């Protein structure tokens, strides 16, 4: 009997030990191709790690929510794990870099406690997780825990807040150059906005993004300057706003001690690690779009992308005309005529069509007869887009949407949100929804990085949140836009499209460039500007310079106007390296469009046309001219025939580029 009791005791001890081991062992999750692997610890503190092909990219890193003073994700004792494997989704993506694409993932959902849970998904090109709750009633989120513990002192690429010292760092336009630094060398006096990229060595990079950011603040990143760890940080909930005079813009005057307050059952934003093994994969990662909520616009047939004759960058600067250029009827009719001549779909009426300081966008300035301008544009096949400030539109939302939709306005360019705390995000959704109900498109400027809102509301056709062409009006050459131009497509464009506003016809070398406000010039060559129309994901694309110069440079204008920016069947990055160069090819039907950019270093590239299908093609190629190193406006146009066996050497000057159209015979 004693032997039997001892045996039972030993078995019981073994079972207990096994249960204890099992509880302490992580839940394993791998991508469908087996390359990406995550371990998820649910005993004690909720944490996860990330490996690629067996190499650790992210060590055990705690995550959690602090809700009403209690931490969701710590002290976990009992859980339930639900798996879904080989889930496939076909995603239709209007006005995106491709019309449609497929994704496949494996998923683990962990039910934690008190009605909370977390879901992890492993894709072949990344890992994502999000929290959820089934709790009813009001919920106050004090904070979110995002610790990122790296196994080595990796190199990071971050864009920091541009707020001045002592000013709210969470409130700014999300426009800055990228700073390259080791994790232990990050700027501890500032915070970085997403996306950020981490170079893990051996060609592997991770880019941190977020998606489905609804009724919740966006994430920023900070470091301690000592360890190989980074932390997430979030803007606190605004409790008091103040008004600025110039544009009647609202600014946060006071914040609460919590980051969000919500109501009822909900999901929280996706945190995404996009994993790439070659830089050419980075601009093509679709996880932000794939993880966003599906479209809430049932009929998208009315949504119209296109090219825009834009007034602000060139300061309404037409000349050799018989009228005084400015915000008046003659000037805007001139812009409409130019747009019609070149097959451009839109003209923007930027700041000044209503008195900005009034905060009243329902009242047009006396100098403009808006119904007459709308009718004039429609008679020539050109629609108008109106600029406004976020909170001004939000204050008059239904009235403004109804009035201008009925008048025939195509949409709004909405500016100066300059934050992504919860109330700012709610405003972005509110405006997108109202605009969709009134068949109005949107271009969000002064706005946080894309988080998939363009999937949920496809009428949001472009975003700024980019260090674009406006910066050359006041920035010296030390603001290296040529370097930025071959970093931004790899990092920022992974999140979504960019309203960079290219198209400068005044171009300058590094030695000759200077900031000029009324007659601005670009850094780099003419062909660098042309190539941007292919390289950038941009369903609403500005022509930033003025009609007088575009008419003088009609050959380049014709080329820009011929580049499609929607209904893209296929997008490829043919070659390139982060911070050095990029070559992008886009296919529409049987025809291809290829553009390439370099930094200030001249380069010799070889373009292999093996991506073409069968048959022969006519190629129109714009390359830097032989004197582009000293005369940045110098370019050469070449016509030739090509097929899938063609290989074309191309020289890119300092700050240069090339662009081509490839039309099937």
Q: Which SSEs are present, and which pair or pack?
A:
Layout: H1 2-24, E1 27-30, E2 36-41, E3 47-52, E4 55-67, E5 70-72, E6 80-92, E7 100-111, E8 116-123, E9 126-133, E10 138-149, E11 155-160, E12 179-182, E13 192-201, E14 204-211, E15 219-223, E16 229-234, E17 238-243, E18 250-255, E19 260-263, E20 266-267, E21 270-276, H2 287-291, E22 306-309, H3 329-341, E23 346-349, H4 370-379, E24 383-389, H5 390-395, H6 397-407, E25 411-415, H7 422-437, E26 441-444, H8 453-456, E27 460-463, H9 481-485, E28 507-508, E29 522-523, H10 526-535, E30 540-543, H11 547-552, H12 554-561, E31 570-577, E32 581-588, E33 591-598, E34 603-608, E35 617-624, E36 635-642, E37 647-652, E38 657-664
Parallel strand pairs: 22-23, 22-30, 23-24, 24-25, 25-26, 26-27, 28-29
Antiparallel strand pairs: 1-2, 2-3, 3-4, 4-5, 4-10, 6-7, 7-8, 8-9, 9-20, 9-21, 10-16, 10-19, 11-12, 11-13, 13-14, 13-15, 14-21, 15-16, 17-18, 31-32, 32-33, 33-38, 34-37, 35-36, 35-38
């Amino acid at each position: 009997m004693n032997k039997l009791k001892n045996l039972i005791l030993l078995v019981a001890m073994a079972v207990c030990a096994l249960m204890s081991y099992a509880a302490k062992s992580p839940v394993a999750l791998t991508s469908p191709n087996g390359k990406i692997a995550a371990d998820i610890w649910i005993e004690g503190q909720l944490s996860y790690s990330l490996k690629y092909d067996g190499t650790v990219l992210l060590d055990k890193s705690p995550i959690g929510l602090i809700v009403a003073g209690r931490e969701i994700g710590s002290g976990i004792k009992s859980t339930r794990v639900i798996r879904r494997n080989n889930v496939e989704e076909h995603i239709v993506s209007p006005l995106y870099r491709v019309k449609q694409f497929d994704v496949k993932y494996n998923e683990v959902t962990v039910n934690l406690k008190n009605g909370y849970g977390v879901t992890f998904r492993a894709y072949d090109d990344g890992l994502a997780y999000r929290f959820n709750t089934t709790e009813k009633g009001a919920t106050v989120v004090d904070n979110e825990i995002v610790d990122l513990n790296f196994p080595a002192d990796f190199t990071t690429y971050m864009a920091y807040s541009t707020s001045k010292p002592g000013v709210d760092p969470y409130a700014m336009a999300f426009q800055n150059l990228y700073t390259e630094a080791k994790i232990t060398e990050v700027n501890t006096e500032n915070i970085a906005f997403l996306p950020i990229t981490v170079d893990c060595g051996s060609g592997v990079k991770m880019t941190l993004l977020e998606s489905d950011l609804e009724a919740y603040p966006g994430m920023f990143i900070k470091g301690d300057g000592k360890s190989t760890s980074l932390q997430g940080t979030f803007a606190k909930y605004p409790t008091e706003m103040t008004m600025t005079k110039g544009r009647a813009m609202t600014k946060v005057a006071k914040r609460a001690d919590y980051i969000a307050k919500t109501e009822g059952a909900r999901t929280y934003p996706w945190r995404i690690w996009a994993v790439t093994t070659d830089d050419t994969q980075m601009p093509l990662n679709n996880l932000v779009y794939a993880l966003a909520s599906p479209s809430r616009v049932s009929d998208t047939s009315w949504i119209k992308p296109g090219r825009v004759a834009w007034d602000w960058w060139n300061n309404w600067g037409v000349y050799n005309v018989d009228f005084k250029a400015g915000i008046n009827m003659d000037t805007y009719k001139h812009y409409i005529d130019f747009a019609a001549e070149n097959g451009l779909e839109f003209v923007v009426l930027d700041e000044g069509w209503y008195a900005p300081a009034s905060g009243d966008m329902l009242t047009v300035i006396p100098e403009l007869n808006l119904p007459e301008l709308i009718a004039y544009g429609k008679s020539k096949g050109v629609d108008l887009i109106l600029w406004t400030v976020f909170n001004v539109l939000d204050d008059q939302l239904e009235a403004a949407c109804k009035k201008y939709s009925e008048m025939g306005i195509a949409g709004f360019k909405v500016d100066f949100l300059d934050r992504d705390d919860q109330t700012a995000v709610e405003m972005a959704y509110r405006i997108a929804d109202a605009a969709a109900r009134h068949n109005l498109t949107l271009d969000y400027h002064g706005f946080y990085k894309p988080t998939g809102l363009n999937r949920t509301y496809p009428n949001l056709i472009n975003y700024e949140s980019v260090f674009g062409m406006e910066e050359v009006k006041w920035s010296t050459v030390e603001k290296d836009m040529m370097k930025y131009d071959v970093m931004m497509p790899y990092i920022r464009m992974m999140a979504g499209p960019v309203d960079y506003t290219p198209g400068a016809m005044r171009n300058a070398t590094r030695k000759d460039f200077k900031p000029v406000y009324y007659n601005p010039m670009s850094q780099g060559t003419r062909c660098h500007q042309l190539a941007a129309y292919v390289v950038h994901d941009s369903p609403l694309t500005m022509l930033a310079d003025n009609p007088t110069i575009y008419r003088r440079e009609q050959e380049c204008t014709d080329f820009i106007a011929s580049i499609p920016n929607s209904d893209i069947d296929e997008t490829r990055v043919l070659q390139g390296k982060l911070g050095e160069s990029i070559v992008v090819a886009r296919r529409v039907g049987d025809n291809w469009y290829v553009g390439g950019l370099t930094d200030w270093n001249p380069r010799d590239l070889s373009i292999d046309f093996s991506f073409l299908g069968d048959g022969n093609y006519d190629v129109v190629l714009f390359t830097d001219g032989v004197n582009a190193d000293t005369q940045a406006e110098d370019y050469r146009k070449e016509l030739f025939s090509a097929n899938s066996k063609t290989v074309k050497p191309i020289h890119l000057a300092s700050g240069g580029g090339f662009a081509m159209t490839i039309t099937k015979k």
